[in-house]
Design brief:
Order of helices and strands: EHEEHHEHEHEEHHEH
CATH topology: Alpha-Beta Plaits
Strand order of the largest sheet: 1-3-2-8-5-7-6-4
Helix content: 40-55%
CATH class: Alpha Beta
Length: 246
């Protein structure tokens, strides 16, 4: 199993329109060619930045997808259409850790949240496997005790990203007060302080970002979408955000 990770910069104020057009004009063709959407997210703080995560079976599917994008008329139509909505696009290929949930497991389990925590660690050379094993054995049990679940743990494939990148995605609650409780639990956990001291030797640099699961057709999405409209979701989950502004 492999994963495609796409960072997409959207024209301000056209984000929801892009989500709709992507869902109707690109997603069905992508799925027919072997891509399975795992999550489509809005990135916190940088609200015109989106992140798409796709699952594919193997490298042969990537070859087929490349041929689709290079030669299929529908792919060319989508590329012309997408130019109206996105100003930048960066992709990378990820390999999952053996304990990282598959899309099938995500759909069967309870992984829906409004807020997800995305971590990108730059790991020291030769330490990636050791760091990932420690995530499984040490960090995952701690995080579960705080109220988080691991959505995915991935290692960026050489040649498609900076060397030794490890990306984790975790559930982080449905409103910001949920995240505050998780954060307080972690800060008061002596084991987490030990983890941070140890992990700092593996990953000298780590970046944390919020992802918001507000796209209705995304498997990873807020459960509020089942009960309320988009505007109600925004009000409950992210009351301080001024929507429609950069």
């Amino acid at each position: 199993m492999l994963y495609l990770y796409e960072s997409i910069t959207i024209v301000p104020r056209l984000q929801e329109e892009f989500w709709k057009v992507m869902g109707t004009d690109y997603l069905p063709e992508a799925e027919q060619n072997g891509m399975r959407l795992v999550g489509m997210f809005m990135v916190g703080i940088h609200y015109n930045e989106n992140l798409a995560l796709w699952e594919v079976d193997d490298w042969a599917v990537l070859d087929r997808l490349q041929d689709f994008h290079d030669n299929h008329p529908l792919a060319k139509v989508w590329e012309r259409e997408a130019v109206d909505y996105r100003t930048d696009w960066v992709g990378k290929v990820l390999e999952p850790a053996h304990f990282s949930p598959t899309l099938a497991q995500i759909k069967e389990g309870d992984y829906r949240a409004t807020i997800y925590l995305h971590t990108l660690a730059q790991v020291a050379p030769g330490k990636v496997d050791e760091y990932i094993r420690a995530i499984e054995k040490e960090l995952m049990p701690m995080a579960q005790g705080w109220g988080m679940k691991l959505v995915g743990c991935y290692h960026a494939v050489a040649g498609t990203a900076s060397g030794n990148e490890v990306i984790n995605v975790w559930t982080a609650g449905n409103i910001h007060s949920d995240w505050e409780k998780i954060r307080e639990a972690s800060l008061n956990d002596p084991a987490y302080k030990e983890w941070e001291a140890k992990a700092g030797k593996w990953r000298p640099k780590v970046t944390y970002r919020f992802l918001y699961g507000l796209v209705p057709y995304s498997p990873l999405r807020t459960p509020f979408l089942e009960e309320a409209g988009t505007e109600e979701v925004r009000t409950v989950a992210m009351p301080e955000v001024e929507w429609g502004k950069e």
